[in-house]
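re: the backbone from monday

yeah here it is again, tokenized this time
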């Protein structure tokens, strides 16, 4: 009887242990320009109970009228499937930039600041999908997203066979998925176009 009681107690402890309420997903990518590797990206997703945290971190170095070193960090928080806040921090040897979106009194405040770009606004509608999620799931049925870096909504268009296009500030980005997993992204940027390719 005592043995059964102890076994039941152990099972209950394990079932309700905070460690089991956490799940983490991690993906690694390489970043290249014209086939030349310029850096790496690590994407992680961590779920704790009903809150999910996304993190993208990349370090790149390339030539654009001089050497540019860029550390890029995107942090995003969702609660019960709703976008709550994000920050995109860019540190370069030519200046630093910060874009933020956060929910305050039922309204999203937007303060976006990037290379040759600034945008301040408010969004009153609920947000349930943002650009960071493209690195973790195929956007089946999704038509638009909020972009953490620009603070604006962008369209998502399915091209079939796991291919999707997004349009951000007039730039077209191309995403390719295989079995629901992101394999490659062709990104268009005011500085340099580049490719992000899955390692594993």
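seq for it, each position gets an aa:
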């Amino acid at each position: 009887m005592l043995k059964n009681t102890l076994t039941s107690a152990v099972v209950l402890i394990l079932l309700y242990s905070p460690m089991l309420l956490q799940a983490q997903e991690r993906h690694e990518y390489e970043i290249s320009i014209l086939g030349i590797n310029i850096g790496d990206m690590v994407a992680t997703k961590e779920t704790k109970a009903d809150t999910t945290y996304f993190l993208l971190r990349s370090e790149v170095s390339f030539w654009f009228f001089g050497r540019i070193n860029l550390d890029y960090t995107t942090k995003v928080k969702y609660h019960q499937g709703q976008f709550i806040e994000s920050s995109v921090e860019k540190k370069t040897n030519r200046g630093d930039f910060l874009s933020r979106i956060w929910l305050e009194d039922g309204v999203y405040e937007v303060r976006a600041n990037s290379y040759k770009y600034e945008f301040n606004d408010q969004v009153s509608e609920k947000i349930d999908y943002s650009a960071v999620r493209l690195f973790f799931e195929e956007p089946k049925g999704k038509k638009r997203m909020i972009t953490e870096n620009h603070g604006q909504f962008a369209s998502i268009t399915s091209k079939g066979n796991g291919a999707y296009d997004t349009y951000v500030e007039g730039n077209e980005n191309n995403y390719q998925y295989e079995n629901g997993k992101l394999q490659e992204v062709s990104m268009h940027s005011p500085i340099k176009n580049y490719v992000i390719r899955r390692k594993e």
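The two ends are 49 Å apart (CA to CA). Helices lie at 2-16.
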